[in-house]
């Protein structure tokens, strides 16, 4: 079984992007968050320590990752669970949903910590589909991915009632990463 994904440039990008985005929010510090594919819990703990989250859950399919995340989150109103998506959580339970799923194009059997599916976006799309119901109307979703997949992801998000676009970018020598910020439209 592979070790939990270790925080890297992509993890820091997601944490910094969400933190900066929330700096101007009135509800800052009162938010309820959900992270899917949390690995060691680095982003969730960072958002709590920055005063963005009041309470949060994070999930990962890896038992080892969930255990490591629980250790990192100890002493805060945060917890890690073993799950493959957001179906375990109540509808409209979260103000923020955020994820940095594996995004390399390859088969999951090769290395589940970095493989996002045959085209690299399949896992991100499954997170999008499963977590949309967990987001309250007016809530925000942040998804990190390789820039080449952003268009397809945004098209799928629009069909689910989420609107938005690229919030942050990080160009590395071999790829460009983006964080998409999406808002769930409020019912009229």
From TrEMBL:
InterPro entries: DNA_methylase_N6_adenine_CS (IPR002052), Euk-Arch_PrmC-MTase (IPR052190), Methyltransf_11 (IPR013216), SAM-dependent_MTases_sf (IPR029063). Gene3D superfamilies: Vaccinia Virus protein VP39. GO terms for cellular component: eRF1 methyltransferase complex. Coiled coil: none annotated. It comes from the Archaea. GO terms for biological process: methylation. Residues 34-99 form the Methyltransferase type domain. Belongs to the eukaryotic/archaeal PrmC-related family. This is Protein-N(5)-glutamine methyltransferase PrmC.
